[in-house]
Amino acid sequence: MPVVKTLLDPLLLRDIPHRATNIPGRNKKSWAYQDDNSRYFFGSFPTQKIPVDSSDQFYTLVAGDVGRPDLISYKFYGTPAFYWVILWINDIADPFEGMYPGMLLRIPTRLRLIQYDIPG
């Protein structure tokens, strides 16, 4: 299981390769994930989970949706920027391997994302 550190710690310790230290502003609150091979990955995942709510929508994937969480994000939120929320909420690590036609996805409303301080 990867070790999770706050993004600031590895940057301060110069524990991340130089090319990865140029973090865009929207990723300042990101997490750095380290795998077993000591490689770091960045994500915009907040620390809290969004519990299931009656306002959540559910969507069944069709063949054209596989590997395209950005299109699903656009369909529900009007922007592809929340693709990672769809992956995160539905526990999908790889959209090409973890998504399949007929899969049911939970899609929280935009208001719920705001309530949980999800950046967008």
User: Care to count the β-strands?
Assistant: 5
The strand order across the widest sheet is: 1-2-3
Q: Helix- and strand-based class?
A: alpha+beta
For the record, the count of structural domains works out to: 2
Distance between the termini: 28 Å
CATH class of the largest domain reads: Alpha Beta
Mean pLDDT value: 74
Radius of gyration: 16 Å
CATH architecture of the largest domain: Roll
Helix content: 10-25%
Number of helices: 4
Largest sheet data: 3 strands, antiparallel
Q: Residue ranges: pLDDT <50 for 5 or more in a row?
A: 1-5, 16-29
CATH fold naming of the largest domain:
Membrane-bound Lytic Murein Transglycosylase D, Chain A
The fraction of residues in strands falls at: 15-25%
Q: State the oligomer.
A: single chain
Spatial shape: globular
3D structure, described in words:
With 120 residues, the protein is α+β, with helices and mostly antiparallel strands. The protein folds into two domains: 41 residues, no CATH class; 59 residues, Membrane-bound Lytic Murein Transglycosylase D, Chain A (Roll). Helices cover 22% and strands 17% of the residues. The strands form two sheets. Strands 1-2-3 form a three-stranded antiparallel β-sheet. It has a two-stranded antiparallel sheet with strand order 4-5. A hairpin with a 5-residue loop joins strand 2 and strand 3. Helix 2 crosses helix 3. The radius of gyration is 16 Å and the shape is globular.
